[in-house]
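Researcher: Structure prediction, please.
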Amino acid sequence: MKKMIALLSPVVVTIATAVHASEAGGHEQITFLGDWLPRLVNFAIIAGVVVYFMRKPIRDFFRNRSVEIAKAMQESKDARERAVAALAEMERKVKDLQAEMDRMVEDARVRGEQDKQSLVEEGRKMVSDIDAQVKQGVELEVQKARTSLQAEASTLAVDLAEKSIKETIGAKDHERIVKEYIAKVGGKG
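Model: Predicted structure follows.
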């Protein structure tokens, strides 16, 4: 770049000098030989010098630029291929993730059904156990009530028999029964 500036500086100075020298105030008559020919010759010389000295840098610039453009295009192509591959990979992962989510939902549904069945079975077992306990408790209470009723009935029967005997047996009968009992037991009467 510095080399190019160094080469173009004299050209710019020459052009500026030519422009300043050609300032005539507009009073001259313009002719091809008098006005345009020196300018064209000057331009041809300057263009020849520029082409002579700048030919290799310009050629290298455009050659390098072509190489850089080709390299950039290749990098762009490679980047596009990587992006397409990454997109395909992500799409595959999304599909796999969707399949995994579907599988997890199905597993959760099956597990929920199993839990539901086990809870229903457990509930039935608990109802059956409670029913058995209630029946056992009822049977125990019925047995207690029977025993209590039998004891009370026995007591009432004894009381009624005693009362009935007291009413029907007089003093004579009482003495006779006592004597018979003593005789049976083995005593003297």
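Model: The chain has a mean pLDDT of 85.
Researcher: Thanks, that helps.
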